[in-house]
Amino acid sequence: MGAKLFILTQDRQFEKIVDLDEGMVLSFGRSDDANVVLPRGSVSRLHAQISVTDGVYKVQDLGSTNGVIVNGKRVREQALKPNDKLMMGEFMMLFQMQGEGDGEDAGSTMVEDEPPLPNVAQTMAAGGKKGPAAKSTAPSGMPPRPKEITNLDLKQMKSGGKASTAEDLFSDEYVNIRRTIHDILLDRMDLHQVNILDLQDAELREKTSRAIEQIILDIAGEIPDKFDKQRLHKDVLDEALGLGQLEDLLADPSVTEVMVNHKDQVYVERKGKLTLTDKRFINEAQVRSVIDRIVAPLGRRIDESSPLVDARLKDGSRVNAVIPPLALKGSSITIRKFSEKPLTVADLVKFGSFTDQMASFFQLAVEHHQNIVISGGTGSGKTTLLNVLSSFIGEDERIVTVEDAAELQLRQPHVVSLETRPPNIEGKGAVTIRDLVKNCLRMRPDRIVVGECRGGEALDMLQAMNTGHDGSLTTGHANSPRDMLSRLETMVLMSGMELPVKAIREQMASAINLIIQQTRLPDGSRRVIEVSEVTGTEGEIITMQSIFEYQQTGFDENGRISGYYMPTGIIPKFIEEMRQKGEEVPMDMFQGAAY
Q: What are phi and psi for residue 419, nearest 5 degrees?
């Protein structure tokens, strides 16, 4: 006789049924390597496993941070009984043997008039949105939802009936308990003396976790029953060694950007859509503490005389912070998360950012040393596309990258990565993008890759493209290829060189071969909407021709934009040169529409 594990989160964005059969050993965690992936930051990479041997169903903690909770108690290893309630992070689970809850005769655990558990794949495809649950029968192969998940107050599964509501977690009483535990922790471990660069050390984290656990046991009589001690333990640990309320969001693989507008308002971006979270900071001082913890290891500062800063987390995530008096409602933090696994060209094709034919064209362009500018708005995916295009550069070439905050993840063996430096406390010592681009020319690069041109460095970049550094790549902010040329012209003028407009445009026309326009569409998807070739000048006008264009046709049943890519039929100059040299080029990439 088998069993089933019903899994869901309180926000109902994740719902799943797992069959448990004899001989199975299933791992649970947020890592893609887990058999059952639980994609939230409160879950460890490999959190727990459930094994079935001789009819015994056993759950085992695999050394997770937040533990495995069975019926309100944390366990290392335990045999499961019918109707046991489990917690792994924020995932609530109900264990049922087959035959349990199959109808009124089996304990009346089934509710026939409840809507069926939605198909997870359909729910995710619809961006987590649920359609009207009018039908009362479950889809084929999906059992009806058990009563415990439908009618039970889901919060009670966290601690066997001792729930911590959002109001509890931000009440003065809860805040005071957290502060008390934190103060005792500082006395016992003297965390102020710990090197801040070592705060993420696994040994220190384990030592601190054990200390907090002991403190909670010592003052257990002072903690009201309504508070979840596991949540309290995690909150104090995150404040002591991490980034507090942001820890779960940064560990959540579905989150691509975290935005703290002020202490009471934290947004995240998932699948291109912004969502308000339930995360809140206790006070403004806690937000400032998080900012200080980010910038201190980098030797940077933020105060009233320098109230904004760009920084980088240890994992490479890009951070911007602004404090009062510039931030009127309180300190603001924006974190662009660094992907552990860089997106590949196959991923972008799968996401619909461009087609296989266009990917082949991009590869040919990079391999044949075309100078390429990626144009687009903020958050449109320019850096991701730049990273993918850079992957086409040969392993025998020397690449020098220049960025404000290092985000590129090139896998070639011969890469030199340069990053800018802000001024020191005296306002001196700054190293700009332009300084680094100039220095690149003395480093014997085969390719120069600049994360973004936004000022006078555009002139140096154009000169590099025109003086033997073909195949260079960069990005810029603009709404169309033509706008990108105008922006570059303005950037060159910002260099301080008094050049006539005609000379600037001739320089641009001879330096740039292709402009790829990237856009984030209203449904959150990121697509290449146009690929244009710069062909030269006519008088003072730079001439261009479009090679690929995206044609929007409407919306699908899930409200996502639909359309197709249409080659214009124009053959770029470098392709014609390749053919004249006798090189084979798949010309079908310039023919027919692709969806």
A: -135, 140
Query: 3-class DSSP state for residue 519?
Result: strand
30: which DSSP letter? Answer: S
Give the phi and the psi of residue 409 in degrees, each rounded to 5: -125, 70
Cα 275 to Cα 266: distance, rounded to the nearest angstrom:
9
pLDDT in tens, 4-42: 898 887 666 778 889 898 889 999 998 888 999 998 878
> At which residue do the structure tokens 């000379």 appear?
503
Q: Which residues contact 6 (CB under 8 A, 6 or more apart)?
A: 16, 17, 93, 94, 96, 117, 145, 146, 149
Residues 209, 210, 215, 217, CA torsion sign? positive
Whole-Å CA distances, 265 to 261, 284, 330, 392: 6, 12, 10, 41
Are the C-beta atoms of 168 and 162 separated by less than 8 Å? no
Query: Over the stretch 253-305, which tens digit does the pLDDT of each residue have?
Result: 888 899 999 988 999 998 778 888 888 887 888 888 889 888 877 777 788 88
Whether the predicted pLDDT of 161 surpasses 60: no
Residue 180 has pLDDT above 70, yes or no: yes
Q: Per-residue pLDDT tens for 361-372?
A: 999 999 999 999
**Residues sharing a CB contact under 8 Å with residue 267, sequence separation 6 or more, in sequence order:** 258, 259, 261, 274, 275, 276, 277
Q: What is the DSSP string of 459-486?
A: HHHHHHHTTT-TT-EEEEE-SSHHHHHH
Separation between Cα atoms, residue 128 and residue 150, nearest integer Å = 18
The pTM score is: 0.63
pLDDT at residue number 359: 94
Residue with tokens 């039929």: 569
Paired tokens of 408? 């590129």
Q: What angle do CA 578, 579, 585 make, to 5 degrees?
A: 85
Percent of the chain with pLDDT strictly greater than 70 = 84
Q: What is the pLDDT of residue 216?
A: 87
